[in-house]
Backbone:
């Protein structure tokens, strides 16, 4: 195992030419019941034209990281306690609210999970897209409308012109998510964060939306952060995968490497729990236990109480995210053994 | 929209008939001789008795009485008092006064209540929030007549800022304090409902989306947040006009306003049943029309209601 640290994790704050980097980010939620350490030193980056999938169960901190990037974290209770979020090398956490606002939509845009609640119920879908052209680009109403219809067309909504004046509740779930995508892409963002974009949809529609997202990402050469808990969703679209557990990245790798040879027992557990055709009729394999209580994360490796490979060292020392070569990294004391086994 | 409106209008018919019948029945079935004390000490002359008995069908059942009353009503005839005065005259002189007072109250209620609600909803737990919470509690807890008499005494008598009573011209400047008194309790409720509604929607997903779109904060609040939060407030405001008019009786008494409250009170005391019914019937109409308007406005504010 090389002692070189994971990509971008130098913590120096020096500009590295990356499009978007999260560096050593820590976020805690101060609630009445105590302090929940939701993000505990997350570092990842995404470049133009590449898709990073952030994978993890609910509560792993993947969405909170995205909210921190967007600057839409609810404060209170959420507070950033350490780290940087650099966009074109500049730390957004140190910017003025107005500077940050200008990046939203134009620099970094976001697609939310539940399009029904994420769209404003009392305005037409068209209005909500055109609004950005009017407010951010100073276009006239009619020009903005034209552009909004073009956007609806681009995300393959049939009869875009007619659909312009429909309200969100008049759209089907899949169409609504398309409209949401159109809205997020309106200002031609450099980075698109998709927070579980298909979780609320039927399986068949899921595939269509993922295809559309992948296509748009390639066309526009955007950097995309795809947040999901569904391993099946990411395989076709993502270039790299970062697996999160209890507010940390536990493994990062190219898609192929990760599927072929996971370097963290948690990833292995996730892969094993995917239902497989050749195991039809057998009981599904699961990861035993529950994710840790974030107010009381176990000492050492946060995964150790659930880990089939846990050794005494796992209860004492937090494994750092270490480079394993070829752009992969793992935060497991036994990463090498995992990768080198057959 | 047209069908919706038609359906709503049709719904008004049974409600109107039901409420007016209840009132009619209640007022006319008060025990006692309707002519007692009407003609001084001597009792009424038989031909007058006969005339009024025939006019109001006093010898017939309540159903016949009500039916004939409604028949006359739809021809614009509200009947006459036992003294021979046209009841429509009483209504025509007293209603505009009460309506003016209620509209002023509603305006004050909407402006102050909504303003306080929005400001405190956006910034909860600040100084202003606590101030509004305490003062609204005050307004809700104090009976209207206490607020009325205290303000009348302080502003009108002690400091002389206002005239203690309202003149017959019903000038707008004279109506501000009575309007505030009349609308005080509702104002407090409006402020609280608006505060809760704003605070709730402040964390809504669609507000977060609006922020994520990079819209300026004033647009996020002024367009995306406010429009959604207004829905419950509008309902409250709209239905309040009828309640304000019906509840104006105390305020009218304190500030000497010749409105329907005073007329109804007088009519009840003197057993002028036809006057009571006439005034209340118009009030019921105001309620029903306002309710309809609120529902239409509701549908305009929330598109999800329109097509259901």
Residues:
């Amino acid at each position: 195992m090389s002692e070189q640290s994971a990509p971008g994790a130098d913590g120096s704050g020096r500009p590295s030419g990356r499009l978007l980097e999260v560096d050593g980010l820590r976020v805690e939620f101060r609630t009445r019941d105590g302090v929940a350490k939701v993000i505990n030193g997350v570092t990842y980056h995404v470049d133009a034209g590449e898709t990073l999938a952030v994978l993890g169960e609910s509560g792993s901190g993947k969405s909170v990281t995205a909210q921190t990037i967007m600057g839409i974290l609810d404060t209170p209770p959420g507070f950033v306690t350490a780290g940087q979020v650099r966009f074109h090398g500049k730390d957004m956490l140190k910017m003025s609210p107005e500077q940050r606002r200008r990046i939203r939509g134009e620099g970094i845009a976001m697609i939310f999970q539940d399009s029904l609640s994420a769209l404003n119920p009392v305005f037409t879908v068209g209005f909500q897209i055109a609004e950005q052209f009017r407010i951010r680009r100073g276009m006239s109403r009619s020009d903005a409308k034209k552009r909004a219809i073009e956007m609806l067309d681009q995300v393959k909504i049939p009869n875009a012109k007619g659909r312009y004046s429909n309200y969100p509740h008049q759209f089907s779930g899949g169409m609504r998510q398309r409209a949401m995508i159109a809205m997020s892409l309106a200002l031609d963002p450099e980075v698109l964060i998709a927070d579980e974009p298909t979780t609320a949809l039927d399986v068949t529609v899921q595939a269509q939306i993922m295809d559309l997202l992948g296509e748009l990402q390639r066309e526009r050469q955007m950097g995309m952060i795809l947040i999901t808990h569904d391993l099946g969703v990411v395989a076709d679209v993502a270039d790299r995968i970062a697996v999160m557990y209890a507010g940390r990245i536990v493994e990062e790798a190219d898609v192929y490497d990760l599927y072929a040879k996971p370097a963290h027992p948690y990833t292995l557990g996730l892969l094993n729990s995917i239902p497989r055709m050749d195991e039809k009729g057998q009981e599904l394999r699961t990861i035993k236990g529950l994710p840790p209580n974030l107010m009381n994360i176990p000492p050492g490796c946060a995964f150790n109480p659930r880990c089939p490979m846990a050794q005494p060292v796992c209860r004492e020392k937090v494994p750092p995210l270490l480079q394993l070569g070829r752009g992969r990294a793992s935060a497991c004391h036994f990463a090498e053994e995992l990768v080198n086994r057959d | 929209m047209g069908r919706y409106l038609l359906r709503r209008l049709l719904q008004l018919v049974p409600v109107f008939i039901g409420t007016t019948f209840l009132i009619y029945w209640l007022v006319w079935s008060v025990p006692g001789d309707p002519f007692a004390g009407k003609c001084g000490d001597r009792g009424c002359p038989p031909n007058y008795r006969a005339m009024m008995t025939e006019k109001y069908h006093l010898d017939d059942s309540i159903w016949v009485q009500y039916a004939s009353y409604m028949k006359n009503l739809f021809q614009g005839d509200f009947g006459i008092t036992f003294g021979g005065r046209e009841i429509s005259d009483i209504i025509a002189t007293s209603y505009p006064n009460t309506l003016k007072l209620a509209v002023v109250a509603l305006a004050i209620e909407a402006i102050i209540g909504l303003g306080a609600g929005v400001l405190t909803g956006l910034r909860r737990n600040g100084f202003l929030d606590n101030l509004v919470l305490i003062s609204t509690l005050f307004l809700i807890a104090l009976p209207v007549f206490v607020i009325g008499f205290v303000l009348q005494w302080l502003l009108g008598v002690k400091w002389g800022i206002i005239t203690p009573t309202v003149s017959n011209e019903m000038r707008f400047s004279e109506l501000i304090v009575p309007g505030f008194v009349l609308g005080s309790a509702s104002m407090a409720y409006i402020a609280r409902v608006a505060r809760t509604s704003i605070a709730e929607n402040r964390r809504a997903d669609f507000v977060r989306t609006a922020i994520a779109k990079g819209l300026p904060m004033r647009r996020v609040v002024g367009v995306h947040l406010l429009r959604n939060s207004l829905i419950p407030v509008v309902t409250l405001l709209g239905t309040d006009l009828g309640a304000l008019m019906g509840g104006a009786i105390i305020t009218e008494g304190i500030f000497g306003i010749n409105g329907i409250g005073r007329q109804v009170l007088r009519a009840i005391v003197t057993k002028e049943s036809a006057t009571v019914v006439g005034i209340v019937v118009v009030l019921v109409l105001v309620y029903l029309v306002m309710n309809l308007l609120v529902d239409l406005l509701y549908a305009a504010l929330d598109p999800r209601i329109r097509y259901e």
Observations:
- The CA atoms of residues 234 and 297 of chain B lie 8 Å apart.
- The mean pLDDT of chain B is 86.
